[in-house]
Amino acid sequence: MARDFPHQVSAPPKKPAKNAGPGERKHYDRTRRRQSRRRIMVEHAIAEPKQWRSLQRWIGRRETLHEVMAAIGGLVSDRPPRRVILRRPSTALVLAGPAAC
């Protein structure tokens, strides 16, 4: 599908050969991670509306489901994104106890 629809579907990168050099491995890893970062955003966007209780057990009329889905989609899209900030732990020594004074 990625060949037929290049701007709509992205296939995972092909693995390098077993005898590939470190440069090829690094390029593969970077490309794979880049695609994974883009893909996880889409997967989360698809999964989030499914968590809304009103859609988990829809007992209303089928004719109104489309309107409810659009309303919930609007609510979901208006929320600010929760960004995870990765912080590296500090390696600095912190003195504790009476010696800290």
Descriptive account of the structure:
The chain has 101 residues and is mainly alpha-helical. 47% of the residues lie in helices and 0% in strands. It has three helices and no strands. It has helices at 22-47, 53-56, 62-78. The longest helix is centred in the middle third of the chain and has 26 residues, at 22-47. The protein is flat and about 60 Å long. The protein starts with 21 loop residues before the first helix and ends in a 23-residue tail after the last helix. The mean pLDDT is 76.
Q: Approximately how much beta-strand content do the residues carry? A: under 5%
Specify the helix fraction band. Answer: 40-55%
Number of continuous helical runs: 3
* Shape type: flat
Given the helix and strand composition, which structural class is it? mainly alpha
Rg, Cα atoms, Å: 23 Å
Order of helices and strands: HHH
Beta-strand segment tally: 0
Query: Largest beta sheet, briefly?
Result: none
Intertermini distance: 66 Å
- Return the average pLDDT rounded to an integer: 76
- Point out poorly predicted stretches: none
SSE blueprint and pairings:
Layout: H1 22-47, H2 53-56, H3 62-78
Which properties best describe this structure?
mainly alpha
Short description:
Helices cover 47% and strands 0% of the residues.
